[in-house]
């Protein structure tokens, strides 16, 4: 169980850096790993791999749709093909290619979408991927993973490299608190219990795991014990941990750095409404585009903070009846 109490002193690292470091290790271990990017080698942290394995790296330029199809072709000759760029370009710009070539063909292509969420900050609405989880999770054969910190990004990168078929890995631009450890267990499709409690379940992914842990501390000061679940994989989703949380807690709050429509919260609701209906509240971006600004200030402006999660928890608890 992890409990985080200090927003200031906790170590912070980038998930995209965890991806880059693990990709380099994979390249050293397996000669069938290939990497492609679209003129953003440094931004998505594939430069480590490119520098050591230039013969297995392709810069496709600002031609993301071509990059997707090149990765698909490489997968057909036995390569584990990672293509990495900003999440909004990797998904929305390439959606037809991902759907018709990668997913329909069930190809072994791994998509790393960086700059997901509001913490992309000053890059603004055009580069803040807030819809890509929804776009990816509706596609048959696609696995969708949102690591919460550096260590989980490393484990997720390795896990998707070993899983046959299409995978999407969401990464962030900014440094975020490290709330897991190097030796913490990680399994695709299995949520992680971060804190025990039976009054309400806070289910979060990505950067919102930290905010959910802080919210649990706020609630604990009010005598409310919140369960915190890190739902790092939203497809396939861990039905068991969700149904158990609904049954034992009786109320759920989801928190994500994504549109509330068709994201992680929607995926959780689809499970809950079928198996164990309970009151739910949703924290996320409420049907609007992002803005340019400091990432932390944007989280506050858009209501994605610990205080917002705690308030949503109070509402959900009141609705228990």
Structural summary, described in words:
It is a single chain. By secondary structure, the chain is an alpha/beta fold. The chain has 2 domains: 12-177, Thiamin diphosphate (ThDP)-binding fold, Pyr/PP domains (Rossmann fold); 192-318, Rossmann fold (3-Layer(aba) Sandwich), CATH 3.40.50. The protein is 39% helix and 20% strand. It contains 12 helices and 14 strands. The strands form 3 sheets. It has a 7-stranded mixed beta sheet, with helices on both faces. α10 links the parallel β13 and β14.
What is the topological layout?
Blueprint: E1 12-14, H1 15-29, E2 33-37, H2 47-52, E3 57-59, H3 64-76, E4 80-86, H4 87-93, H5 95-103, E5 109-114, H6 132-137, E6 143-145, H7 150-162, E7 167-170, E8 175-177, E9 192-195, E10 200-204, H8 208-220, E11 226-230, E12 233-235, H9 239-249, E13 252-259, H10 264-275, E14 280-285, H11 295-301, H12 306-318
Parallel strand pairs: 2-3, 2-4, 4-5, 5-7, 6-7, 10-11, 10-13, 13-14
Antiparallel strand pairs: 1-8, 6-12, 9-11
Helix pairs in contact: 1-7, 3-5, 8-12, 9-10
């Amino acid at each position: 169980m992890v409990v985080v109490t200090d927003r200031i002193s906790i170590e912070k690292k980038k998930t995209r850096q965890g991806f880059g470091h693990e990709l380099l290790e994979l390249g050293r271990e397996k000669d069938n790993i290939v990497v492609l990017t679209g003129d953003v080698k440094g931004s998505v942290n594939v430069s480590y791999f490119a520098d050591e394995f230039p013969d297995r790296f392709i810069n496709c330029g600002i031609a993301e749709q071509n990059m997707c199809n090149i990765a698909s072709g490489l997968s057909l000759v036995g390569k584990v093909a990672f293509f990495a760029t900003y999440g909004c370009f990797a998904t929305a710009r390439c959606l037809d290619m991902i759907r018709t070539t990668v997913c329909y063909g069930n190809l072994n292509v791994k998509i790393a979408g960086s700059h997901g969420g509001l913490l992309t900050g000053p890059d603004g609405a055009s580069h803040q991927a807030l819809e890509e989880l929804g776009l990816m999770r509706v596609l048959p054969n696609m696995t969708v993973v949102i690591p919460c910190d550096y260590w989980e990004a490393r484990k997720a990168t390795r896990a998707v490299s070993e899983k046959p078929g299409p995978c999407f890995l969401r990464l962030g631009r900014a440094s975020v608190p490290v709330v897991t450890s190097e030796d913490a267990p990680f399994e695709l499709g299995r949520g992680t219990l971060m804190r025990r409690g039976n009054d309400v379940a806070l289910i979060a992914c990505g950067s919102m795991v930290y905010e959910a842990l802080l919210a649990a501390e706020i609630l604990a000061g009010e005598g409310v014990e919140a369960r915190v679940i890190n739902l790092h994989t939203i497809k396939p989703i861990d039905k068991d941990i969700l149904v158990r949380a609904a049954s034992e807690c009786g109320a759920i709050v989801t928190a994500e750095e994504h549109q509330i429509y068709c994201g992680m919260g929607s995926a959780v609701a689809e499970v809950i409404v079928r198996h164990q209906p309970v009151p739910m509240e949703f924290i996320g971006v409420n049907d609007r585009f992002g803005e340019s600004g400091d990432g932390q200030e944007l989280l506050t402006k858009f209501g994605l903070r610990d205080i917002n999660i705690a308030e949503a928890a109070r509402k959900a608890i009141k609705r228990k009846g």
